[in-house]
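During the first year of the project, the team set up a workflow for recording each protein of interest as an amino acid sequence followed immediately by a discrete structure-token representation. This format lets reviewers and collaborators read both layers of information side by side without switching files. As required by the reporting guidelines, we include two representative entries from the current panel. The first entry is reproduced here exactly as it appears in our internal archive.
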Amino acid sequence: MTEHSVGQDRIHHDWNADLEPILEIDSGDVVHFDAMVAGEGQVWLGASYDECRFDFDTIYNLSGPLWVKGAEPGDTLQIDLLALRHGTWGWGSIVPGLGLLPAEFPGGYVRTFDLSGGDEIEYAPGIVLRLREFMGTIGNHPGDPRRSLPFPPHRGGGNMDNRHLVQGASLWLPVHVPGALFSCGDPHALQGDGEVCVTALEAPLTATLRFQLHKTSSETPSFLVSPSGVSHFDDAGYYATTGISSDLLECSRIAVRNMVRWLSDTHGLSPEDAYMLCSFVGDLRVHEVVDAGVWNVGFTMPLSIFRN
């Protein structure tokens, strides 16, 4: 087993099978990443939305690709997340036209956060959030097309925004190209299931990952959740809203829309701060799909964040 380090000087912004790998590793090797925050140089601590200069062609900073020796299409790459640690600051945003509720939030909005004080932040008076970092984008090259945007998840993983992939978790990814061409980035300090306002709490991250190659096939990404990833907020219970509709996406909109209203009415948050809080710590849950043509989606808000 060999240990390697990857800094912030070798990044790319999309999935491109023609990129030269920055590192060759053997099965069993450990790699230490210094992952650059999404939007580095485009948003900064203290910036307002009007000051930011978002460039969606370069907003994602992916570390890689890594060439895994012996990896061939049809294999499976196991990634063990040994250590993850957030950086000293982070940001979240509502972007016009994006997110789950674009009609309700047509204007741009950015908040930045000082994360240097430890593993908790005061989101608003009496509302305290515990940080739980993970990689929003982590995957092998999908193979086809050879070059594609970084945003949608794909059959090799990619921008899955899976909040359960915290320290201690393991991830299994299908290999679709020789060498696997693994990349990771888009680090988050905190996110709920759904990332409904379009961002998580975006933050720099240092990560230690171990790679193991298996000569067995897998059709889709799969993962094993560590105990810390199962539920890091729900120990005090949660309040939930429900969306019922013949369309799963509309179910989600109804549930989140009503949670935004509840947070504003009950806890005095502005609609923008309520919506962003939903993205940071709220979870979309599909409660039921068996009734023909009508689905039931819930959205939960953990009560442990309310300290007063």
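The second entry, processed by the same pipeline in the following quarter, appears below.
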Amino acid sequence: MLVLASCDLFIPKTEPGSRNYEWTLDTLYMPMNYISSVWGASPDDVWAVGAGGTEYDRLLHYDGTQWSTYTNEIIWCDGRIIFGFCADDIWMGGQAGWLERGAGIWHYDGQQWKQHYVYSPEEPYRAIYIHDIWGSSPDNVYACGLRTFYDETNIFLCKGFVLHYDGTAWRELARADFNSQFLRVRNENEIVYVTSYTIDPDTLSGGDYEFYQVKNDSSFYKIGSYKESKIRWIGLSSIDEKVYLTIGQNAYRYKKNKFKHFLYVDNEKFYNNVYGRSENDVFLSMRDGIMHYNGEDIEYIYESPSNDMDIFGTPLILENDIFYSVRYPGFNELVLHGRLVEE
């Protein structure tokens, strides 16, 4: 995903992206927590958030030199996703926290974090979360998530929802009436897409990955459904404001209700998604590092020092820097930072 990382946006590169990165692993102190998302306006203004921990230590900030726990405000939202446009316009979403029941969305205005919106539908639910926030502009922001509940026969179910922010207020855009966990949301040319993962209600185990378009009447059009046992994962991302869908080891450009093949990754360790500054500067999350596609071929640009390291989630991609959250059992949370070096 091309992260719009500052108010002074750069023009996406069209030439093959460089692979000459210098990598560092930063250790973050997050007791009883894990990093779920990173976002920043510049290499010396980066945020990391986790859904665990407590309201006093789940949000961290990087000033270009060191990471520190953010303590200016109590963060009740159990942050699962953070996304922004510039240093004074950042969104965070998750559960609302102990003070209020519902899914919470918080906003940072450059001075402080405040609760901005709580989504608590009238239909019964056991728990409700924001899983993703993404927008094309400050007055066109989307969020998606799920609510969990037991039906009248005591079957555990999940149902997704999509929210929209128009620059003034958040509102519910659509609510699914089918088994769904909405994981990612993107839009292109006023068309909204979500990916979903369904759990088999009888076994509470793996089911299907699904790809939907949210229609103007708040209904859903199923574009595709894929068995987890066959493809392991689907992903949804944006590169240069264009929507891409990853299905197993293949990435597709999706436009006008058609799939156009973009990239095949001939490596079974590929998972998650494709992210980049342009179609010639794409980063691929691997189970043993990071690979890069420059428009011609694919090569490793970072190899993990341990097979137990899990590089996951949506990276923060800036003009010359990239940040990934990393999980490494037995260690504190890590952030992998790559910086382009002049060749």
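For the second entry, the following points were noted during internal review. The first strand starts at residue 21 and ends at 28. Residues 228-231 form the longest helix (4 residues). Both points are flagged for discussion at the upcoming steering committee meeting.
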